[in-house]
Amino acid sequence: MESVVSELEGTLLKDPDPFSYFMLVAFEASGVIRFAILLMAWPILHLLDILGMGDAGLKLMIFISVVGVRECEIESVARAVLPKFYMDDVDLGAWRVFSCYKKRLVVTRSPRVMVERFVKEHLGADEVIGIELQVNRFGFATGLVKDDIGLILNRVKVYFKDEQPTVGLVRPHPVIFHDGRLVNRPTPSMALLTLLWLPLGILLATMRIIVGLSLVWRVHPYTISRIIGSKLVVKGQLPPPLSSSNSGVLFVCTHRTLMDALVLSVVLQRKIPAVTYSLSLFSEIISPIPTLRLTRKRNIDAEIIKKSLSKGDLVVCPEGTTCREPFLLRFSALFAELTNHIVPVAMTYRVGFFHATTARGWKALDPIFFFMNPRPEYEVTFLNQLPMEATCASGKSPHDVANYVQRILAATLGFQCTNFTRKDKYIILVGNDGTVSDSSGIDHVRNVVSIFKHSIHIQDL
Question: Which of 118, 166, 168, 271 has an alpha carbon within 20 to 30 A of 140's alpha carbon?
Fold first, then answer.
């Protein structure tokens, strides 16, 4: 069988220095203190590399990054955070050559647990040879490695045999789901900038939230955004206020952050209730708008939504969970069954330092991290209300209506439609659907053949 061996750092990845990825592990698996310690150690690591003692520097970097960290936490970061940053650093030219071979082996100077998932699922590697971490019987990394780093080449010789390559080309698998708070890969300079910004960001976020909540219903939204140093972009024709003779309008939104419904209410300058599934109790308590917690039991949820619509407008995000990348998850068809007064709203956001969503952390902090960014931006685009011929009133199935709304919202944002669901997201990011372990679900996700379909069938939830 034709085969190839390739180094990861500096070959498949443009950057030969894995430091920034260890910084991500330190921040996401342990916190800001370990992140700062590793950054302060960077001059020593760099000096060791200059003196030809790169292996010693690498061992020190590994020790600082993972000592005392649970192995499952390292695996969680490798699953949910690192793939996004690795993919951004891929050298496509080198990868095309790598992909020409049938049997593909990747050699890495990083711990195998950090890179294995990415290179197998996104680069198509068959095997990974890297540093093996020592883990004690309680599941904590000792910070030491099992074998000498120089012995990696011996393991390659055992695995890899002389074979003639052939030419071929395939397409890489994109990263759709990823987690973690950091937007930028923490290179030494970016990590230092992030640490310096952190205390100012916390103070700024606190002031923004206090001022914003006190003025939200009293001042024009553009004025509020200028006062708190954010940016609000509104496109499309805003729908008229609800009249006493009209039933409520259902605003069907893309789901980017916890604040989608609040931003929509601020733009329309009225408190519109929002449908939620897994909002934290703390977030419900401090929410400036009413929230309706659904049960994920179809009949009960339908009655809750119908009752709310009989009283006025309502906001729903049929994806059921957030997605950071330019993709839309599968839309639940339930909303299409309950009303013909549907206004699609395309929502997206842009930040500089910190993401405003997480699957693994405390979600109540999402608004705080959003406002910790220097100039956070939200963009809201109102589409026209669906004509009756595009709703179930014309005989269309709820699935067809949901598919159509998903497609027009994706087209508005320049996103791609997928058939992935909330459960798929949590299987990929945390290893289960948010409640129980489901290894068979992982196999299901890995066997999804096409994620770029613009016409998909939405199954009943």
Answer: 118
